Sequence to fold (271 residues):
Amino acid sequence: MKDRLSFRGRWVLVTGASSGLGEEMAVQLAAEYGANLILVARRAERLSELAAKLEKAHGVHCKVIAADLSRLEDVRRVFHKATSEHEIHAVVLNAGITHFGKHQDLSWERFETLLQTNLIGVVWLVNNFVHYFAGKDIDGAIMLVSSMAGVMPVPYQAAYAGSKAFLTNFGQSLSEELRGEPVSITVFSPGGIATPMAHESDLRYFENTPFLQDVTSCAAEGLSAMAARRRFHVPGRLNRLQMFLSRFVPRGFSVALTAATYRKALKAAGQ
Ligand SMILES: NC(=O)c1ccc[n+]([C@@H]2O[C@H](COP(=O)([O-])OP(=O)(O)OC[C@H]3O[C@@H](n4cnc5c(N)ncnc54)[C@H](OP(=O)(O)O)[C@@H]3O)[C@@H](O)[C@H]2O)c1
Fold:
């Protein structure tokens, strides 16, 4: 089993590549790693534009699969299309959605869509790609884009934090089960990132604070962790410091502090 993976001339599948972190990881995979890309999201036009741009600028090959990953039939179609047409060497499971506000105000439909997108589709793809890599004996990598919200509870993002806590524990547990096998799992857990997810929410409150990491450095750290087959990585020094310090603070206190910060932010957003 190789210690460090090379993606040059190899196919890497990226979900949620039409925006934010996924788009930036696709750009860096083409520019820095020379990878061919399968770009997945709902907004096909944005994916096609990105594919054309990356092919022209970096001489890589790109394919687009438009899919709604909250629907299991689309998730299955993505897997079958990608694996029947190309040999895949890495999978970046990045697509995700969030919500801000009181959990009791979240409709069941939105909650269900969040779980389908952030969890069910992701776990289905992990299960199937683990078998795929084992069957082909490929040195492969899977990145699960989780969040620091998957390690520390976040009131007013309760369903999101819960979905990411599942991903974090699932991914880290599975990565230990797969020790010594050709496929590695990297749980990547950013704090806040300056992407549309943060900007298009009503929570402008966090915008001009050091809490939002720039998307370029965040993506670079994630890809480097995946290539190095790290099992867990939190990008950004400030985030790592926060994680470290949280060990010495009673959990109840840090949850209450987060809740107070979000209450202010929600109030500022008129919620
Ligand atoms: N921004 C943050 O502060 C932050 C912090 C920690 C972790 N993260 C995680 O980072 C990941 C990327 O988030 P981001 O900040 O880059 O958000 P973003 O800019 O909103 O991008 C989300 C991506 O997910 C795709 N997506 C959402 N629902 C989908 C669906 N049903 N089917 C297919 N694709 C879907 C979107 O594409 P379409 O709309 O075109 O389908 C888009 O490409 C998420 O997993 C998020 O939880 C974000």
In short: The chain has one domain: 11-268. The CA atoms of residues 17 and 26 lie 7 Å apart.
